[in-house]
Amino acid sequence: MTDEIRRRDLAKIHIAKKELDLDDAVYRGIIAIEGGAPSGSAADLDGPGRMRVLRLLRRLGWRPGLPRQVRDNGESAQDRLILALWGGLYRMGAIRHGDRRALNGWVRRMTGVDDLTLCRPAQKQHLIEELKRWQARIEAKNRGG
Prior knowledge:
By secondary structure, this protein is mainly α. It folds into two domains: about 70 residues, no CATH class; about 70 residues, no CATH class. It is about 65% helix and about 0% strand. It is globular.
């Protein structure tokens, strides 16, 4: 039974990756940071890690069984990932305000662009990488390393 659950969870994760249009680097970052599998491979996730990854993918906008156009709220997959990573930093206590206004202030400092939605894809990718590094530093600090 547990092998069947594992296979079902992994299938959901791979479907979500495809439907959210996540590039490989972003996907592997999610697996490593949210799921706790440093290899970046979903196959290395344990049960709780798979659940954390699936929760994040849902926060990014993936809705199992819904046609893509129903799920789309106008934000890109990069926008949703940035919002999710920002929210994760807020929950970790790394930032005081987890709202969109605070995020846009950080985006302005990082890129010179006033709003996340106005950033180019390359800028958004840079923001994603910075947020992932920030989360990794906080996690390392919390582990005592």
